[in-house]
Amino acid sequence: MALMCIGFVFLLIISSATACDRCVHKSKVAYFNKDSALSSGACGYGSLAPGFNGGHLAAGVPSLYHDGAACGACFQIRCKNPNLCYKSGTRVVVTDLNHNNKTDFVLSSKAFTAMANNGKGQDILKLGVVDVEYKRVPCEYKNQNLAVRVEESSKKPDYLAVKILYQGGQTEIVGADVAQVGAANWKFMTRDYGAVWSTSRVPKGELQFRFVVTSGYDGKWIWAQHVLPADWKTGMIYDTGVQINDINIAQEGCSKSECGGDGSW
């Protein structure tokens, strides 16, 4: 996606929907027998994925995956069986695309059993699929800034691919540019897949980034200066020095029944 301007205008028209902080949706979830399936998922996190959120991971359907923009998004999920499950449920991080349209999410086994009351983890696993409620929630990475990992496919000076990590808040990155530190000649990056962005127009020297970040109905540019040194290396993770949190409370257009669910959230 080419970003040819410095500002974005976000327009939203809500007709029959109600502006709600976070819609509560009803669906079903299943789980992966092998959590390695989520580590090799569509977001491209690879071996880093098991370290996210204590391994409480999820694959989301296309309407939640947002063509990869929702990679790293957090959701609170709780099963509807009060005899089996905790009322609060568990928080998951999206690391993959779910191709099964019978459930909105497929969870890691850790996340699936975390919904259950003490001693009932095996009981919920035996069910395989459970009815749930879920909502989007902000991600929190304490003492961890937004970071970029230089992918092994990068080849200096002709090609740069980076993976975006530890994105906080209830936000999505929908655009990315890179430039030499101190220069105004920004080069747009394209989303290759999931959390991976690249460009074949690599600036020389120390590099800075800017990202278009959306949160609910709002969006803005976030600048990250002095991110990659001039001698950047593949396989290395570089701290951007910035935190991305909610720009505002990320509202959604919800039906009346979705806006708050049963009122206990």
From TrEMBL:
Organism: Xanthoceras sorbifolium
Protein name: Expansin-like A2
Domain of life: Eukaryota
Annotated ranges, domain Expansin-like CBD: 158-240
Expansin-like EG45 domain ranges (all copies): 40-144
Stated family: Belongs to the expansin family.
Pfam annotation, one family: DPBB_1
This protein's UniProt keywords: Signal
Signal peptide positions on this chain: 1-19
Record flagged with keyword Signal: yes
Gene3D superfamilies: Expansin, cellulose-binding-like domain (2.60.40.760), RlpA-like domain (2.40.40.10)
SMART domains registered for this protein in UniProt: DPBB_1 (SM00837)
